[in-house]
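Possible regression after last week's pipeline update?

I re-ran a chain I had predicted before the update to compare outputs. Posting the input and the new output here so someone can diff against the archived version. Not blocking, just want to make sure nothing changed silently.
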Amino acid sequence: MTEGHGDDIYRYPDIRINFSSNIYTHADLSELEAHLCKAMSLIRNYPEPEPHSLEAAIARKYGIERDHVLVTNGATEAIYLIAQAFGLQKEPVSAYCCYPTFSEYEDACRMYGIPTKALTSNFSPLTSHLSPHPSLLWLCNPNNPTGSVFSKEEIMQLADRFDFVVVDQSYEDYTLAPMLTHQEAAASRNILQLHSLTKTYAIPGLRVGYVIAPSHIICRLRHYVRPWSVNVLAIEAGKWLIENNVRVLPDMKAYLAETERLRQRLNQIPGIEAAETHTSFILARIIPHTAAELKEYLATNHHILIRDASNFRGLTPHHFRISTQYPQENDQLIYALERCHHTSHAV
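New output (post-update):
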């Protein structure tokens, strides 16, 4: 899906508060920007055909061998590489997702002819009826858009029941819940763990992520890597951020406390239900208006952008998603939503 992911600020002329992206929007990237300005001469030459220097930096940071690491053009490229690697093998593969979740898993599988089946959130009723073909389970952890989290114990149990388990940990730094470690994924038999420097360092424009997996799976994925898929500035930024142990996200305990305050305020507005979350983003539902109507109202009248979540499989036209901002900005959203409720012709 190339459209409909949110953060479509380019569609609106005067957005002043952006709640639509799950990525932290207030990160101070000035030091990284200064470093890249000094490194700008790198664009005169081709990057490494495969970014082995960044893979080595990641391996050193987490104490694993480099053959367990594959750097990609964002986590999204990793998703499509995995679907390609499994979809083009001789033996058919069946994929499974627990909806609602990130749409690219199903889209990537569809592109490479892998049928995708829906599982319930507890998995237990359906895993005994898996296809006789090799099974590929996709997990988003923390999950987008719900903010729910699978425990490490649950993931390891699922790894015993499925042939391959993809654990997309793109939002791992936006939660306090324990996550599967790099070392645990590398030592596993069948886990492919996805990471997003885009999310960790709030650099969506650079597109850089990576996979941690057993070496034989990494080798399998490398057969489908395009040369120069990661540009030289993304490689340089990734190395500089990792080697300097940079942190751009806020204190997560305080950030999630503000998220819970925002969620409780949302639930005080008639017609809005905001679900519990373990991350800094919140899935909510509004009645009787649709999310599309609400989005247009907020953008036009309050210069606020939210994510219309109706295109997530399993959700309704009434679902929307927001990501926590500064307290005063969150209060402006609450005010706008209250105005929407009290003004009968608001949307």
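Follow-up from reviewer: compared with the archived run. Residues 16 and 303 are 5 Å apart (CA to CA). Marking as no regression found.
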